[in-house]
Every structure is written in C-alpha cells, then in structure tokens.
Fold this sequence. Notes:
- The chain is of the alpha/beta class.
- Among the domains are: 3-74; 126-259, ABC-type transport auxiliary lipoprotein component (Rossmann fold).
- It contains 25 helices and six strands.
- Strand 4 and strand 5 (203-212) form a beta hairpin.
- Helix 4 (142-156) packs across helix 9, helix 15 packs antiparallel against helix 16 and helix 18 (431-444) runs antiparallel to helix 19 (449-460).
- The protein starts with a helix and ends with a helix.
Amino acid sequence: MSTSRGRRLLSFFAELRRRRVIRVAIIYFAAAFAGLQGADVLAEALPLPAWTMRLLVVLVLAGFPVAVGLAWAFDIVPASHAGVEPAARSGDPAPAAPQTRPGPFSETPAPAAPATGPSHTSGEPLVAVVPFLNLSPDPDNEYFADGITEDVIAHLSKIRALKVISRTSVMPFKKRGQSLREIGAKLGATTLLDGSVRRDGDRVRVVAQLVDAATDHHLWAETYDRELTDIFAIQTDVALQIAAALRAELTPDEQTRVRKGPTDDLRAYQLYLKGRQSFIRYTAPSLRQSIEEFTRATAIDPDYALAYAAIGMAYAELAEAGAMPPDTARRRATDAAARALRTDPALGEAHCTMAHIKSLWDFDWVAAEAGFRRAIELSPSGADAYDLYGRLCSAMARYDEAITLQRRAQELDPLAHRIDVASTMLRAGRFAEAQAEATRAIEFDPDHDRAHATLGWALFKQGRHDEGLAEIRRAVDLAPDDTQWLAQLGQAEAMAGHTDAAGDILRRLEARAATGYVAPYHLAYIYTGLGQHDRALDMLERAVQQRAGAVHAVKGSFLFAPLRGDPRFQALLGKLNLR
C-alpha cells in the first residue's frame, strides 16, 4: 500500500470516529441483538407465525446502512451549491505563522524563518495554497501551474475575513517532500489548498481540494475540465468556494474584486506568469528578465494593470540594490505605477508600488503611508504592503510600529519575509534580539546572504568583532556582486582597526564605479568606518541628490551613527523630510 493511500485510509477511519459512525454501529448491533433476544422469548410465549423472526432479522439488517448513513450525514452542514463542507466552527482555534523578504526599505539583511511554524492566535483561518502540481505532458508548463497557484492566492488575499500565506512561503514545498500535515505545521496554517494542473493543447484540467491542516479532513474538492480560456473563471470559483467552506463572508466590493480577472488575454497572462517566475529570484539579471516579460504582456494587453505594477516594483528593486542608476529606474518605475493606477484604481499591488516609490525617491512620507494603508485595505493579506509599510516606519525611527507591521508580514509570508524584523531591531539598538532572529533564519536557510550580514552586525555591535566579521564575509561570499555587503564589510574592517583591508575594499569599489554603477550610499559606509566623515557626508549628499541606495532610511541607520551630530547630516535629514 502506498504512503498516500495509507494516509487516506487512516484519514477515513479518523473521520468515521469523529462522526461517531463506529459508535453508532456498535450501539445499533447491541440494541438489535437485545431486541432479537427479546423477540425470541416472546415468540415462544405467543402464537406468532414462524416467519416472524426471519422478518425481524431482515429489518435489522436493512436498517443498519440507514443508521450508519444518518450518523455520517448528521455531522454535515449544507454549504454551497458545490457541496462545500464548512471547516471552522465558531470558537475553533486557529494557528498562525511569522517571518520576511529581502527588499526595499532595509539597508541590512533579511533572515529566514524558523524550521517550525509559529502559533496562529487570531480567530481567522490561515490558508496556505500548496503549489499546484504540473501534470502536463510538457514540463515547460511548470510556470502555468505556478501561475494558477499565485492567482488563487491573489484572489484569496482580497478577502478580509481570511489570512493567506504568500506565494514565496509556499513555493519551497512544491516538491511535496513532506505530508500536508507537516507542511501545515511548518507554515502555521490551519487550512491547506492542494491541487494539480494538467494542460493539454487548448484544454486544462484543474483538481483542487481543501484540507484541514490538523486532521487531514477534506472540506471541499472539485475537478474542473474546461477550455483553456476558462482558466480565470476556474481561479475565481476556487477562491469563492474556499471562502464558502471557511464561512468567510465577502462584502459586495470584495465579491467584485475577486470575480475580476487580471486580463482577458491568455497570451498576456502567460507572459506575466513567466515574468513573475523571474522576478521572485530577486537577482539583478532575473529582475531585468522579468521586466522584459511584463513589458511584452502589456504590449499585448495595454490595460494589464497588474503587469504595470510589477514593472514598477522590479525597477524599484533594481535601484534599491544599486544595480541600476536611480534616475532611470525612478522614471520608469513611476510611469509604470501611474499607468497601473489609472487602469485599475482598486488594485492593491498598484497602490503598494506607488507608495514604495513615494518613500524611496520622493520622500513624501504622508502620501506613502496613505498609499500603503490603501493597499492593505484592498488586499488585506498582501504581505509586501505590510513589510514595506514597516520599513517606512523604521526609516522614520518609529520602531515599535515597524516591528508590529513586519511581524504581520512574517505571519502572512513566513519564508519570504524573514529578516526585516531583525534589521529594525538593529536600528533600534536591540542587538541581542536581532542576533536571535538572524540565527534562527540561518538555521533555516544557511545560504541566506542577508541573514549572515544581519547576524554579523548584531554580533559586531555586541563587541564580538571577529565573529561579526566572519558572518559579513560570508554574506559577501554568497553574493559577490552585491556592493552593499562588500561596502559594509569595508566599514566593519575599518571599525575593527583593519584599515588596510578597508582601504583595499574601497579601492575595489572605486574601480568598479569607473566602469559601472556603484551607489554613493554604499561608498559612504566605508568612509564612515575610516573616520573620514567629510568624505562620507559628500557621498551621502550625492546619494540624496541621486536618490541612491537606501538613503531614504539614513535617519535611524546605526552604521551612520557617528555622523548624527554633524550639521551637514542634520541638513540632509531636512532634505529627506525626516527632521
């Protein structure tokens, strides 16, 4: 017997016990036996026909399946037209999950999630959409199955009554190396959506099932065998069926947004999916590739708002990492985000991208904060919006608010958003706590460059210089093209008294700047470490003028603490609207 068959059999018997079917069967037979014994005594005392006992036995046997069937059915509460069985009853406990993704607002690293999922304390169901398996004859259709996973998550994220774990946290479980119950425990999910996709020519077959993470009890299942052009309707139906199964009430506005597809053009949709597959690698080459795919999608469908929002965020990521001159990235990102908002003013991702732009380059904190709030209102499970909003608060030195928002992002996306809480703790001077967060991240993902850099600084700031330097060097080894970690290593070497090593790194970056782009914000790290404060401020002033690197977050940066008393630094804060 296969493992999956055995698990289903055990799950079936568990369900029989839960619905008291086995108990009813035992009681039924006990009562029937007693009744037949009594009837036999009466048959001897009374002049009853000879066939009486045979009739009673037949009636007892005929009644058994009726009794068992009623015992099974008694536990079922009618739900939707598709036979959805509601899962969570009022008062049922619901678990949850924390963690963060590398990106925009932080200048320091981003750790990974712990190996075990956190406890979910709110009453809302926490749903994890396990990546749909690709059963298509052509393995190149992998991106198509991933796209369905992502779009179902996007639809569910629009429903305020549900909390949905983000794509980046569920994708590591695509290979199905663990059982659904183990996956649920690791993510802290209460409910799992599992399924498969088979695309063959112009036909598509989607199988989906909703499972209780704790019991493996099936709450809803459906098979869709449709034309490929019906894929958007399938995704919408799956989202609505899940909401019904979990008794999540949708407002009329949520109903409208869930039913609205991102595009009517299947070719544009497939290009967008390919772009997303590149985007989530978060490397400079993959981000550029994603922009090409997103742009091709908008060429086919000029009203594809989601693709425009993705273009804007990709350019922002490139500029934040110092991989593209900020003036070029800023112009292109702003144009794309504005186009997305004009096309679909109710798209949460578009508001999130524009809010990030306003903080990253415009230093318009009031408008940025309003934009993030609107993004969260439109997409309550949008982890990126919580994370970037938290970074905005961190940039303004509102650390308690930042950590609260980033914890929420961690809960919604345990594997992607795993380090910004640690970064904020560094900025707040909570070095021991930052060390603990970063250590857990590395235990989960030993090759996470941001996690090692964060841990390095947490150790360094506690006086453990050699250990800290080793961790920052590890970050450089893991991401040799990232000028941020190399520059921070140069600063740490200088602060540890290794001025020759710091000078060598500075010369390497200056040589790279002669042939490519190096953010002046990164060069300022090394000059600060070397005690060349005027030169460091020159670089920071240039960074503000260019909107380069993470200069928007300079106010609370512990790496520039030696400069805070300088009048030039205070003047910089005035230009950033941070005084």
